[in-house]
Amino acid sequence: MNNTAIAASGLRKAYGDKAVLDGIDLNIGAGTIFSLLGPNGAGKTTTVNVLTTLLKADGGTAHVAGHDITTEPEAVRAAIGVTGQFAAVDELLTGEENLRMMADLHRLKGSDRKRVVDELLERFGLTESARKRSSTYSGGMRRKLDLAMTLVTRPQIVFLDEPTTGLDPRSRRTMWEIVRELTSDGVTIFLTTQYLEEADQLADRIAVLDQGRIVAEGTPEELKRQVPGSHIQLRFTTVDEVDAAARLLPGSIRDDALALRVPGNGGTKSLRLLLDRLAESDMEAEEVSVHTPDLDDVFLSLTGHATTEATAS
Ligand SMILES: Nc1ncnc2c1ncn2[C@@H]1O[C@H](COP(=O)(O)OP(=O)(O)OP(=O)(O)O)[C@@H](O)[C@H]1O
Ligand SMILES: [Mg+2]
């Protein structure tokens, strides 16, 4: 039995003398959601392009759905679906026509074609807009149509390159639900994102990509354990107040001359306790803010540098 959907070892890709993928190893279980997390220019799209056979690696090996990407690219392509970073939707066509076009490309005929197209429109909540030109769709609807088009062939493995970048919070949540539903059908998801929150919400395992290298890999819990946790920042108006508060709150760290960082999960309970504690000593913070870790924190703690875009070296 083969439980591995994607396995890669030492994948390399360079443009000129610039290494874009610098030895990528992956092992992704079938039916799981894997997230490749990284900032602009980290190499996410390049990794997707190599694994989906759109781009040839310079070195290393990979098997996708049990097939070698170099020697059996057609078998790989038959098993996968790809939703790229930039939507493949034809704006001149309606949603329904876009789906039919995909069905035609894959030689679905007659009642099969109609059933697949209708099912997908329904599933993605696009039935009402099916006859409208997709140029009139919102960003969220376009992403949904794009993903629906990927699913026409019922792929075993779906690659989603930044599926929610640029979407509002509500559309993002809808997309998350759709992705989760896919795995309940046994589909393996390879998802790239710039958002720690997204990887945290969806992924069984996360790999953090930095300048073409995987700098951390694990479950969301394992990863977040390596990152400084949530904290509450208290800002005061005078240095004396900061000093007094620091004495009162064990474990607090100075953020700057007038601000203290207090460890805490940001929940209402810990926040209330903290404010009560200050009030009991007749102290009041000028400003209170809750900070949850994001990609910047992950990067800072894992790599010692911020999420600056990779620059040509
Ligand atoms: N065809 C190309 N020729 C030269 N350099 C390239 C080419 N494609 C990508 N690169 C470079 O490779 C690096 C990785 O690019 P890639 O598109 O994989 O990053 P990414 O993680 O997908 O970024 P983003 O979040 O912006 O989509 C970047 O520095 C990019 O400039
Ligand atoms: Mg990209």
Percent range for β-strand residues? 25-35%
**Major β-sheet strand ordering:** 6-7-8-3-9-10
CATH superfamily placement of the largest domain: P-loop containing nucleotide triphosphate hydrolases
Compute the gyration radius: what is it? Answer: 23 Å
> What is the number of helices?
11
Order of helices and strands: EEEHEEHEHHHEHEHEEHEHEEHEH
Main sheet overview: 6 strands, mixed
CATH topology of the largest domain: Rossmann fold
Structure summary, number of beta strands: 14
Q: Given this structure, which CATH class of the largest domain is correct?
A: Alpha Beta
The class by helix and strand makeup works out as alpha/beta
Low-confidence stretches: none
- Compute the average pLDDT: 90
User: What hetero molecules are bound to the protein chains?
Assistant: adenosine-5'-triphosphate, magnesium ion
Query: What general outline do the C-alpha atoms trace?
Result: globular
Task: Assign the CATH architecture of the largest domain.
Answer: 3-Layer(aba) Sandwich
Span from first to last CA?
45 Å
State the share of residues found in helices, binned by percent.
Answer: 25-40%
